[in-house]
Amino acid sequence: MDSQLAERLRSVGVDPTSFADPGEAWRRLHDAEGTRATLLDRYALEAAARGIAVDDLEDEVRARLTFEVVSAHFPGFELIVGSDRTTREPVVVVPYDPSWRDRFASWQDRLGAELGAAALDIEHIGSTAVPGLAAKPVIDIHVTVADVEDEPAYVPAIERSGVALRSRDAGHRYFRPAGDRPREVQVHVSDAGSEWLAGHLLLRDYLRADEKTREAYGSLKLELAAQFRDDRIAYNEAKTAFILDALDRAREWQRIGSGARS
Question: Do residues 54 and 171 share a domain?
Fold first, then answer.
């Protein structure tokens, strides 16, 4: 266990050299830190309790821990039966590709045609929406709807476009290709004015505007893609601290910008 994790455990009253339940130790961290308590922390605690290296955790254990952590981070999290992929893709981060804008536009048209008036807005989000930023070549799209709980109003239409509802959590639905379809797009749905959407738009716009943060994020993603090539969730979780810190700066950037315009 690294020294930083040990110190964080001490700060929540857990002895890093002696804890009976790694799940309870992680929950103590999560109660204090929120999403800064990541899957990687949970892996480390489980491995320490078993007296093994993190790399020696079995795939089934990793899957169980992933569900545990994601469920804690996203209240009401539920995986949809029948939405599994039959192929396993490694995490690959590539240099920014200008064609990603055209791929988004194509999907925007496709989704718009299927959804009609049910789509209040369709936005390009995520790293492929930031010119110059290295990214996984998967287009992230957000669809704004009137009521995310009214799934019959939009789920069949989005699935007709070629993606399947993969998961639901409070205020958010996630779609991606199932089976062996190419993993070229991910679709997120939430209500207008949702915190989920606001945070993603703010991060996107800040990364577009701030070259230093954009370059640092790209370098981190390349490093993590090599480290977590076969664990997509761990790759995403390992970015958490950087993203949260960037969002803190982005809110200040937004506040100052709003003041300048007033």
Answer: no
Q: What CATH number corresponds to the domain at position 27?
A: 1.10.150.20
pLDDT at 24 over 50: yes
Q: Residue 141: what residue type?
A: I
Domain of residue 38: give its range: 3-73
pLDDT-derived band of residue 91, with 50, 70 and 90 as boundaries? very high
Instruction: Please give the structure tokens belonging to residue 245.
Output: 């810190």
> Torsion over CA of 254, 255, 258 and 262, rounded to 10 degrees?
-170
The string over 213-222, giving b where at least 16 C-beta atoms fall within 10 Å of a residue's C-beta and e elsewhere, is: bbeebbebbe
Query: If we measure between CA atoms, which residue out of 85, 47, 61, 74 comes closest to residue 182?
Result: 85
Q: Give this prediction's pTM.
A: 0.89
CA 185/CA 195 separation, integer angstroms: 22
